[in-house]
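Collaborator request log, item 7. Partner lab (contact: R.S.) asked for a structural prediction of Valine--tRNA ligase to inform their binding assays.
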Amino acid sequence: MSEENNLPTKYQPTEIEQGRYQKWLDQDLFKPNGNKDAKPYSIVIPPPNVTGKLHLGHAWDTALQDIIIRQKRMQGYDTLWLPGMDHAGIATQAKVEEKLAEQGISRYDLGREKFIEQVWDWKEEYASHIREQWAKLGLSLDYSRERFTLDDGLSDAVRKVFVKLYEKDLIYRGEYIINWDPKARTALSDIEVIHKDIEGAFYHMSYPLTDGSGVVEIATTRPETMLGDTAIAVHPEDERYQALIGQTVTLPLMDKEIPIIADEYVDMEFGTGVVKITPAHDPNDFEVGNRHDLPRVNVMNDDGSMNELAGKYAGMDRFAARKMIVSDLKEMGRLIKIEKMNHSVGHSERTGVVVEPRLSTQWFVKMQPLAEEAIKNQQSDNAVEFFPDRFNNTFVRWMENVHDWVISRQLWWGHQIPAWYHNETGEMYVGMEAPEDSENWTQDSDVLDTWFSSALWPFSTMGWPDEASSDYQRYFPTSTLVTAYDIIFFWVSRMIFQSLEFTGERPFQYALIHGLIRDEQGRKMSKSLGNGIDPMDVIEKYGADALRWFLSNGSAPGQDVRFSYEKMDAAWNFINKIWNASRFVIMNIEGMTVNDVDFSGEKTVADRWILTRLNETIERVTELFDRFEFGEAGRQLYNFIWDDFCDWYIEMSKEILYGEDEAAKQTTKSILVHVLDNILRLLHPIMPFVTEEIWEKIPHEGVSLVVADYPVVHPEYSDEEAAQGMEVLKEVIRSVRNIRAEVNTPLSKPITLLIKTTDAAIDRFLITNKNYIDRFCNPEELTISGDITPPELAMSAILTGVEIYLPLAGLINIEEEVARLEKELGKWDQEVKRVQGKLSNERFVSNAPDDVVQAEKEKEKDYLEKQKTVRERIEQLRTIG
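Returned to partner:
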């Protein structure tokens, strides 16, 4: 065997993967094929944030995309997998500010322009890290089309969308209660708020009636907001407080008179039935305030400290102010009680701090018209098809209940809002560019929510708003989106309604929704738990192919997957099994070329069986790939490769390879090459590195598996009779081996083997192929006949159409054999009971399809025959004993 085709004795992923990715890039294998007659297939990568390393969730998400795009490329589609990254406004700015803070510098020291330069430097550094990680994972991305959410083309798209939505009155500016992040000093949308259960309290206090006639009891979880109270409210039908409506109370600590109002918002059954109204610090109070024309008093600064309207508490942190307010209320006799409790409190997804509901002037997208169109589209032929389809309901429910989207962020890093205000008149102008006399206008300092630009990702990356762009014409709408279920609200929904609004098309035909990566205990991976796994560390130890196999093989659409090193060991072992099988094939085909591969001659039953099983595997795996059921596809591949090819066919091929028939050898070598070649093609989308390494060392045509043809079924190679016969033969061999193991008789020791057949076809088949029984069972005497009388003392196995007996005088304990058979009889008793229970159920018999009922009847017949045979054998042994 030539040295260059020799495989090392052990699979070493680091050596195999080293340099392979760059070779693919140098060959331009990841770009579209340019065949205009081919059907296009496109995917845009969910753009990772340029804030650091990719995690296992990214690895899973991108591995699934790569599996899809590699298979489609091999199937002849004109494929485009477009890479890119997201500027991640809040997260990236926070990272850069932290870095500057270590040097004692704030962004305000630098000013907006120089600070943005610092962030661009950060972006370039971390973008290169992400590309290195993509390369390690083997992602077949077209880097010539890489995009960034702040590049010029995407910025044009963002401005156009903003202006068009504004002109249609779907974007507006207004003063509303929003979620405020005091650390990042920016607004957040509802879905950027994570609710966590924390320990808190209800603080009960008394507000005195101004006329001195009494007090009313109020309870709140945020005493610091009372400084901004502008009313207290009762339900208009609450008889307890009818006389108080229209009166006033004196606001404790502020010595301010505020009215008692009636509003149906108040729940008469909750607490005292009296609530404080703080329009500037609570969304429900804001609505009440609008109905009653109440003033809005904002008592907090952007950083969560109290402002000048908070009186003596001005300058204090909100939580420090809370403690002092409670202490002061207690001192003045206004604190009734403190009721400890656990409650759900909103935290910023980005910075982790407690979110403050706060009055603010922001930009909003009016969601109702856009949501209605998205829901309507899901009932049409243009609908996005979700996998699993239950996520369609998740999407529709979200759109039915969606609130207006706050899109402005008080940041410097991002798309600055294209609105300008006249320096003298205050007039507002919204447009693609600044007004002509720009020196008299000041641009809005806010930037747009990061999700605003990423919502345009499927079409802005293709060249839109230039609808004549060749990529937009060719690859949009995209084919498949792959993402996790926790991002449906953030991103998937927004891509759908923005794409419908601006292109009239769904952004993608399919949305494959996968789960989350969890640790061995089922916990979500997080920094706080310290249970995160760096995919680069996993690749360093096991290789990218093993990681990709684990991620794909654990992949059922919509389901979470648990990471464990035990599973990674199993993935590596599977690849090592393929490696060793390939090594055996390569060692036995030295000198063969593609032209030598010919199996048109006479084939053994093992040859015909493996070709049949290959066809079945190709058909099943292709069907499963089309449904994105990669986990089940992996199981099909594993069973075929490990069991059928490695454990059975390769072992059976030795019967020919070590024989004297040169023609038979050539046929078997050809089939070994053909099956291995197809295995490598089937596996390549999942584990590209090792399959390419092996494929280069077997007879092949073409420059790379990346662009090789994907396997297809060859009906002419299928032989159902051989397949059925082989299953019987395998069961016979397996049963004999099991019996040998039970009585500690090694395969090297010859035995007497009696095979009683009850089916003429099976009898002929076993006699014709007795050479395999000789090889794998090592009998010194072998009898295959329908006329065998079972010996008095023997180990036995009862199969469908076959009874196996190993006379073992002196080697068997009759009591142990009877015990074993009684256990087997119990199994058949249960099977008979189960199947007869089904067949005696009139509802099953009348409602089940005829073929299903018939299958159960066939099982009953088979189980009764086995039950009878085992029972008779037990009686026979008891007689002997």
